[in-house]
Structure prediction request, 418 residues.
Amino acid sequence: MKYLLPVILTTPLLCHGKLQAEEVLEPIEQAYMDSVMLAMPPVPTDLSERNISCTLPIKDDFGKSAEQINYNEPGWVQRLDAQWDYFNIPPEEGRILVIETVQDKQGVPHYKYFANRTQSQVYEPWSSSKVMAITGALSHMRAKGNVGALAKAGDVPVVDLITSIHSYQAEGAADGNSNAIATYFANLATRGHLSSLFHDTWLKLDDPSIHFSGAYANEVFTPSNLNWQQGNEVVAAPYFLKASDDPHYQTYRCDSCALTGNKPMTTLAQAEWLKRLSMHSLEPSTAHPNLTAEDIEVLFYGHPNAIGGMSKGIGLSLHHAIARAFGNKESSEAIHWLENSSDGKWRVWQKIGWGPSETRGQSEQVLIAQVCLPHDATSRSFTIAAQVGVSGASESQVVHAGRKLESLLIRALTQLKE
Prediction:
């Protein structure tokens, strides 16, 4: 039986382990890895408003409201305003789903879903699923006591841990070991809780093949003590020292895990999770259980007096694609266009994941993101989930998957603009 092929990168570790021998990339591949895939994202110049849900464009007769969809009852997927075949992109060229959010003249949010008929196909989400581990852990701790994203786990601020997961760098007291930190969050939340959030306790998806029963590393972040403290509140935070100690943990190739491993997800599941987080305050009926607006702001922006969280999610593929699709600009002009077209108020919150899979014989990349493009006449707010794979399990093929993802994003967003 073959297992998931892990990888050691010459740059921040994004996958699950180490190759037996480090692969040396060709200069052009290394350049793309360094300048696009691993690049730290730019920061908008106008952060005077730490908005999350964006100033929604006004459109009538577009999408459906949460009340019309009734997200809190099973079967809501069938009640959506969705064009599942909207993108004329063959499935072999990637999976893509976009949820566009607007408001009607009364200020009620409406949602419309676009895909390329792949919204229900399960795949390995890689590190993009760390958003689920983070929010599941915060939900768990809010349920235990009045502590959340501004607490300390032992002597390390949780906000540092969250930002370090996204940046793959040391952040404050966090050491940059994204996989170990995310595994800690999953071991704290428990996999039963994480899986339930896709189903009965929150998203109410009908697909039983979607679940979270895996981890990201054997090494687990170890706090200095087993408490979370926020202000005067001190709450016990015991966690599984090993992922395999969790009774709901499953090995990557468990009997029921098929080729997609122990965290199978879909573009619909991932995009819906992130969209609901972004609408936490504007759409209380679909808010993540137990989380507060403070928790959501930390996830998206990081520390109140700095910039972090998903705002520091590495990679420029989406920025390039947005500028190409909406502004007809080359990659070198992308950030300048984003700034000028929005007076510095644009927002991209994102999480990537990638790696080579010996199990599937291919290299893959996944992206989930929330995008805000404020503009006088053409404002857009949307959530995106995308996944691609290329034949061959190697670091160089991971780079090719990155290029394929950028191409997929350009094609989809160009069509969305129309």
User: Anything to note?
Assistant: The mean pLDDT is 93. The two ends are 47 Å apart (CA to CA). DSSP finds eleven helices and ten strands in the chain. The first strand starts at residue 82 and ends at 83.
